[in-house]
Each structure stands twice: as structure tokens, then as C-alpha cells.
Design a protein that fits this description.
By secondary structure, the chain is of the alpha/beta class. The protein is built from 23 helices and 17 strands. The protein has helices spanning about 20-40, 65-75, 105-115, 125-150, 160-165, 165-170, 185-195, 200, 210-215, 220-230, 240-250, 270-290, 320-335, 355-390, 405-415, 435-445, 475-480, 495-505, 515-525, 540-555, 560-575, 580-585, 585-595, and strands at about 10, 40-50, 55-60, 80-85, 95-100, 155-160, 180-185, 235, 255, 300-310, 340-345, 350-355, 430, 455-460, 485, 510, 530-535.
Length: about 600
Amino acid sequence: MKSIYEPYLLESAWEVCNKVGGIYTVIQTKAQFITRRFGEKYCLTGPVLGDNPSVEFEPSNDFSDTWGKAVNSMRKAGYQVEYGHWLIDGKPKVVLFPIAQVLPKLQSIKSDWVKTNKMEMSEDYLVNQVMAFGYLNYIFLKHFEKQVAGKTPVIAHYHEWMAGSSIPLMKQKKLTAKIVFTTHATMLGRYLAMNEPNFYRDLSDFNWLEQARKYNIIAQVSIERLAAKYCDVMTTVSQLTDRECKYLLDRPSDKILPNGLNIKRFAALHEFQNYHQEYKKKIQEFVMGHFFNNYTFDLDNTLYFFTSGRYEFVNKGYDLTLEALYRLNKKMQKAKLDTTVVMFYITKRPFYSINPLVLQLRFYMDEIKETSEAIKNEIGDQLFYAAAQGDGKKMPDLDPFVDEHLRFRLRKTIQRWHTKHLPIVVTHNLKDDVNDQILHGIRRLELYNKPTDNVKVVYHPDFVDSTSPLFKMDYQHFVRGCHLGVFPSYYEPWGYTPAECLANAVPAITSDLSGFGVFAKQHIKNLDEKGIEVIRRRTKTFDESAEDLSEKMLEFVHLNRRERIELRNRAEALSESFSWESLAKYYLEAYELAVG
């Protein structure tokens, strides 16, 4: 391969310094690798959507490089532009455009688009912002090319239709940069997959214009199709989305760009097991507070499963997972297993607040723990002295050592903590719980966390982070404390969640309708032995896939502790295959293709 480090590389995405979706993870984790390869010749652009740039942005006072000179040139032309560094690993250079400055002349920009491209345009708020961002991206590249003056090749890489909105204008105005466009999931494909039962079978038969009108996304789809038409190199993230590109954008991809992660390997193999134990203990504290006020089960024989991601009930396989959990529960009951499975649904839904009872029970659990610690500290020295001074014939009587106030406090808290209510399924008060699909599925299948249920369900409709009073830890620590990730997606262009599991030494289940699952099956032998199970959904009915998933989960339940540790070990080792050190080469090949 020829050296590609000489060109300038400008990378643009709506998610640059803007944590609003999965593409943020792609750009943010890849930036460190790309910065090492391109050095000072790499820069990103993104939008400023509010009054001020993101807290992840650090402004610079040095405008001496080519990027800085282009920023000053654009400022002299009357535009607001922010220049500095993105505060992530690698600290890449970044240019941010306040969107609001373009809105007064937006109608003129849109009219030119409609006239030049013979397309329909909408008054959608997001479309307006995207059009403004695309126009500012074009203006910046025009000023940057003047600084370069044709002496060095320029590659401009745009992600999704939001950043791709600049591509038609760049080509129509005859800018010389080589354009790479990446769609991570076609707009129309995402809508069709959610609403069309035979999406994959009928993909080649859909009329894009008719379907875009049906779902009222004509402007978004038109922008995406124009970006695909005018780019020099068309790319997408998996073979699954490549079919969408072919049939919905009328242009198959020139290159597949699988997404990686920054993988931190541990020097000692026992380290990840120690971390698992540490964070599992925090999950156990939540479980005790949530369940043990009503009934108990053996925590040493309890497994923690989870699923997470955007709230797309069918696309993310939440429906299939619920059905499989119902079947798993019946199978474990029939086999009279004494194992408990606690399944966490982690996704984002509109809610009013954390359910007061859930919060109260957690508070009581913390109070019991705090009081127990106080009692332990109080009796420690007294027990030591009593034991040392005893005659060795009997244990010292502990009762006199415990302060009466602490006894009363502990007794009162325990009495308040116990309740006759079954453990609550959803941790928050949802704004529309009547129509929530996950809750509807739980009610239909009667997964009510009864004492006789081997499978318990906890639906947490918010992100997990260290500020949460329920879990009190970051998401990646929560993942590390679990035993199994479950992601049997129906529509998943790539799918970071299984890779994140591997990175945290947690086995995972995915499907052959996720880009990650397809890539893993093609490139890695004996996947199931290395911590990844790929269930078949492409050629199976919903019922068949649910049965397959329940069997895979049951197989995991039957593993003993040593076997689970060995599987975590192999999962952690496999994660290296999905690091940017292994996968960024596909991006470099796309850039090589662009400059010819």
C-alpha cells in the first residue's frame, strides 16, 4: 500500500463534540489512532447547537497552522468559527460552527438546493440545522483549499446524511478535495426495518421515493442519496448496510468500514476478574435493595444479564429477548434449578422521576449497610480486648458491645425496608407507561418478578452512570460487573454493544442481522468458544429465534464458575480483534482509494 500520510484529512460528523448517538463513539474512539497516523494534518469539524461550544472543546490561541489560517480566513469573511482541540484521547484539532448564524439565509440556501438538485425539501427543524451545518462545512473547505493552494491533496470524510449535506454543494462548486462518505445506517432502511415485517426479503423491491414520502423523511433521504451520488468513495459499516446502499441509495459501497474500539488489555490475566468481582458487588447491592425487602435468593448463585441501546423495540431485539426470557424462566422452573437470572434492560425513555419506592428501598439498603458498618467498627476493638483477656473456653458475648441506639436504628430500618409489594419491574415513572412496548411485553408474558420466577427483570429507562443513585457506577463498570450481554438485533448496521462487552471481558450474544455478528462469523473461527454467540435471525422465524436464544441463555446458566471465568478470559482476549489497531486499516484503505 502506498503511503497516505501526506494528504490533509478533514473528518466531519454531527457527533463531533456532540454526544447524541452511536457515531459519537465511532469518531471519538477512532480519533486517537487517526491522529497518530496523520498528525498535524488531521482535523475534525462539528456543529455548535446551543449558545456555547461543548465542554469537550478546548479553544486554541494558535492559528499558525493551515487549519488555523483557514479559520481566520473564514472569520474575516464574516463567519463565526471556533478552533481548538477535542478533549478526548489524542486531543485532535477541531473546528466548530455555530449553526444559528446561517439560519437567517437558510431559505435561500434551501431554495438553491431544490432548484439545483430537483428535490423536495421540508421545514423539519433537524433538516434546517443540517442544511446550515452543510453550508458552513462547504464554506470552510473552500477557505481551506485556498490555504493549501493545490500543493497537497485533501481528503474530506463526511459521516451520515447530517454531515453529508455539504457534499453536493462541494462538488457542484468544483472544490478539489476528494470526498469520502460513510452511511452508518440509511435513513430509509432504519424506518423500513422498524415497520416492515419482511424488510430483508423485500429490500430490492421498495420504491425509495414512495417510502420516503410515506414516513415523511423525503428531505433526509434525498440529502443522503445526493451525498452517495457525488462522493468519490462510498463507504458503509457492514455488508448488511451495503445492501441498503445498493437498493435505497442506488450506489453500492466501494469499501466496508467496520467499527472498532480502543481496547485496554490487562497486563495480568487476573485483573479483569478482580474488576468483575468489584463491580458485581455494586450490582448485588442494588439487587439486594430491590428484591430482598420482599424475598431473598442466593446471590452466590445469581447471574446478571443485560441488554442496552437505543429504544427500538423490534430493531434492537428487545421483543425477542423478552420472549426468550419467558421461555428461559419456564425451562429453569421445569428443571428445578436453584440459579437466579436478573435481566437488566438499559435504554433511554422519557420519565418523570425515579420511582419513589425504588429510591426509598435503595436508601434503606444504604442505611442498613451504614449502620452495620458502624456496629462493626464499634465492636471491633472491644471484641479484640475481650478475646485477648478471656480464658479461651468460650466466645465473648457480643451483645454488650453494641450501642443500644445502633441496635434500635438497625431494627427500625429493617422493619421499614420490608414490604409486601413484589419487586418493581421498572425503576422509573415513565411518561407513557401504558404504551411502552417493553412494559407491554413484560405484562403480556407476566414477568412480574414473583418469588417463584427464576428469571427477574429490571427495566431501567435511563443511562447508567456514576451519578445514578441506584447503581452508583459508570456504564462500562456496570457492564464489567455483569455476566452476559444479550443483543439479538433485527436491524443493527454494526452494533457496538457486543464489542463493548468483549472489551470488558463479558461474553455476549448477538445475531446474524447485526454488522458485528456478520463480521465476527466471517473473520473469527469457533466464536462460541471465545465468548460470542451469533443466533440466526435472517432465515429463522421469530419463534425459532426466540427458542434458539433461550437455549443459548440456558447453556450459559449451566456453566459453573470456573467455566464462566475461562469464557471471560477468552472474551477479553478476543476483544483485540475489534480494536482500532486491527480495524482502522479499512479506513486507511478508503483514504488510499480516494487519492488514487
